[in-house]
Design a protein that fits this description.
Strand content: 25-35%
Number of helices: 4
Helix content: 10-25%
Distance between the termini: 48 Å
Number of strands: 10
Order of helices and strands: EHEHHEEEHEEEEE
Largest sheet: 6 strands, antiparallel
Radius of gyration: 20 Å
């Protein structure tokens, strides 16, 4: 072994998250599409779990999948979904059982317009087949949320408090948190790793994850709109 160490440590992942970045021009196109069609697109707030209602501009708008911008977005998201699926190769036996051919179909696409006090409780997404991938794209991020990552990195570099859960007031405001299991603070000495992850919003950041993965968004406070869009992609297997 190298470095006088006896053990070679291997990490076995519990979850894989995919990330990519849209450029500002693409983000602008999406925001213009939303702003130009805000009176035409249906508000899904009554049917979604998100508690997006604190401001008269708080909304959850369903995109029209026949419009040009959602169509082009759909092509991009399907490419992301295929790359995510490729990172989870299936055995020939499983493929034979569920069907060797895969069809990727956009299930739903919508935007979330959050203001001070709005939040999304823990939830999961769904598709008709039960197999699929979801995306979150950050379109607008208020400065008080953007600063949280800088503050976290600064504290980490200077040996400060970097625990997002305790003793760091406001450190999770407006962040997206993914949760795939439950554990406690007493599990760390027993070598159990965290079963949650926070994602810091950045304009243009795209996060790709499986539909079953529970996630939530904490409320934030202060001025500004936290705008995201989401997409569910159904992966349909057949012969």
């Amino acid at each position: 072994m190298t470095d006088d160490k006896l053990l070679l440590i291997e990490s076995i992942p519990s979850i894989k998250l995919g990330f990519t970045q849209m450029d500002q021009d693409d983000v602008n196109v999406i925001n213009i599409y939303i702003d130009d069609n805000v009176d035409r697109l249906p508000d899904l707030s009554s049917s979604l779990v998100g508690q997006i209602k604190q401001n008269e501009k708080s909304k959850q708008l369903e995109f029209d999948l026949t419009d040009l911008v959602p169509k082009k977005l759909g092509d991009f998201f399907i490419m992301c979904a295929k790359e995510y699926a490729a990172a989870h190769p299936l055995s020939s036996t499983i493929r034979k059982n569920i069907g060797p051919k895969e069809e990727y179909r956009i299930s739903k696409m919508w935007s979330v317009h959050s203001y001070a006090g709005d939040y999304n409780p823990m939830h999961e997404h769904g598709t008709a087949s039960g197999r699929g991938v979801s995306m979150i794209v950050f379109l607008k991020v208020p400065p008080q949320i953007e600063e949280l990552e800088k503050n976290y990195l600064l504290a980490n570099n200077t040996g400060g408090n970097t625990n997002l859960q305790h003793g760091n007031s406001g450190a999770t405001d407006g962040l997206t948190q993914f949760i795939w299991d439950m554990n406690s603070m007493y599990d760390a000495p027993r070598f159990q790793h965290p079963t949650y992850a926070h994602v810091y919003p950045q304009v243009g950041k795209v996060c790709v994850f499986p539909i079953w993965l529970h996630h939530q968004v904490s409320p934030f406070f202060g001025e500004g709109e936290r705008r995201t869009m989401s997409c569910n992609i159904d992966i349909i297997n057949h012969v």
